[in-house]
C-alpha cells in the first residue's frame, strides 16, 4: 500500500485539500498520514529557571488537545464521502514544517505529499517562496498542490507539460499509471517556440512508443508560452496539470503577479509537481 503525507494546519484550505487527499488515496490505494507541525517559542531559560519545562509542556499539551479535537472532524468528512476505509494515521511534530515534512517522507517511505494553498497571493507565494523551494528541492516525491477554492471532481483529463526530454518519459509513465486507476486521459503539451530544438522525429518516436497508452500528444506553436498553457488548460478541460521540477523556474513564472491572478481566476485546478528520477 502506498503512503501519502498530508501536512495540515486545520485551516479551511487544508480541510478542502483533505477531500482531494482522500479521493487521491482511494485512486492510488494509499493510506494517509496527517502531519501537523508547530514551533515552540524560544525562551531564555535564565529568566524562567523553574517554569522553563512547564512552559514547553503546556504548549505541547495545548497543541495535542487541538490536534485531538480536529481529527474526528476529518474522519467525519471521510465517512460522509464513503471513504472511511481509507487508513488515516497521524504525526504531531514540533519544529520547522519543511524539516519535519522531509523527515516524515523519509521515515514513512511516503509516495506522495498533498498540501493545500490559500488563494491567489498564496499561489504566488507557494511557487516563489522559500518554503516551496525547499519542498521542491528536498522532498523527493510527487507533490500535489490544491488551491483553496478548488472543489474535488473526478479526474478525467490530466495535463502533462513536456520538453520531450528522455527523462520526461519516466514521469509520463508514472502519470499514466495514475490515469489508468481513474480511467483518465493524459494530454501531453509541448509549446513549440521559434527557438525550439525538438525535432519532428523525436515527437514521432514518442507517439510510437506510447501508441498503446491513453495519451494524446499536442504540439502548439507559439512564443506566448504562458498564455498557451492557460488556453490548453481551459479549452482541453484539464482537471489537473503536471509539471516536472527541471522546469520549476519556468513554471514559477506562471504564477507571477498579474498572470497569477489571471490563471487563478480563470483556472483553479490542482498542480502535480513531479521530480526527475
TrEMBL record:
Domain of life: Bacteria
Domain UspA: 1-147, 175-274
Protein family: Belongs to the universal stress protein A family.
Protein name: Universal stress protein UspA
Upper taxonomic lineage: Bacteria, Pseudomonadati, Bacteroidota, Flavobacteriia, Flavobacteriales
Amino acid at each position: 500500500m502506498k503512503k501519502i503525507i498530508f501536512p495540515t494546519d486545520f485551516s479551511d484550505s487544508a480541510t478542502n485539500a483533505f477531500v482531494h487527499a482522500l479521493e487521491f488515496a482511494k485512486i492510488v490505494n494509499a493510506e494517509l498520514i496527517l502531519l501537523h507541525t508547530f514551533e515552540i517559542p524560544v525562551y531564555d531559560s535564565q529568566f524562567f529557571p523553574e517554569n522553563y519545562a512547564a512552559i514547553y509542556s503546556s504548549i505541547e499539551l495545548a497543541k495535542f488537545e487541538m490536534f485531538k479535537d480536529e481529527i474526528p472532524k476529518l474522519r467525519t468528512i471521510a465517512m460522509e464521502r464513503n471513504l472511511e476505509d481509507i487508513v488515516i494515521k497521524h504525526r504531531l511534530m514540533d519544529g520547522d514544517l519543511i524539516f519535519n515534512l522531509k523527515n516524515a517522507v523519509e521515515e514513512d517511505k511516503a509516495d506522495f505529499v498533498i498540501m493545500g494553498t490559500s488563494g491567489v497571493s498564496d499561489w504566488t507565494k507557494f511557487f516563489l517562496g522559500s518554503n516551496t523551494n525547499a519542498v521542491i528541492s528536498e522532498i523527493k516525491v510527487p507533490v500535489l498542490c490544491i488551491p483553496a477554492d478548488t472543489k474535488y471532481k473526478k479526474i478525467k483529463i490530466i495535463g502533462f507539460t513536456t520538453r520531450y526530454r528522455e527523462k520526461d518519459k519516466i514521469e509520463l509513465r508514472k502519470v499514466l499509471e495514475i490515469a489508468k486507476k481513474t480511467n483518465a486521459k493524459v494530454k501531453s503539451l509541448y509549446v513549440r517556440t521559434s527557438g525550439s530544438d525538438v525535432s519532428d522525429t523525436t515527437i514521432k518516436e514518442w507517439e510510437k512508443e506510447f501508441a498503446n497508452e491513453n495519451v494524446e500528444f499536442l504540439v502548439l506553436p507559439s512564443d506566448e508560452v504562458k498564455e498557451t498553457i492557460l488556453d490548453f488548460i481551459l479549452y482541453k478541460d484539464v482537471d489537473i496539470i503536471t509539471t516536472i521540477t527541471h522546469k520549476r523556474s519556468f513554471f514559477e513564472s506562471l504564477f507571477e503577479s498579474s498572470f497569477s491572478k489571471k490563471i487563478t481566476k480563470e483556472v483553479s485546478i490542482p498542480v502535480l509537481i513531479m521530480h526527475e528520477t
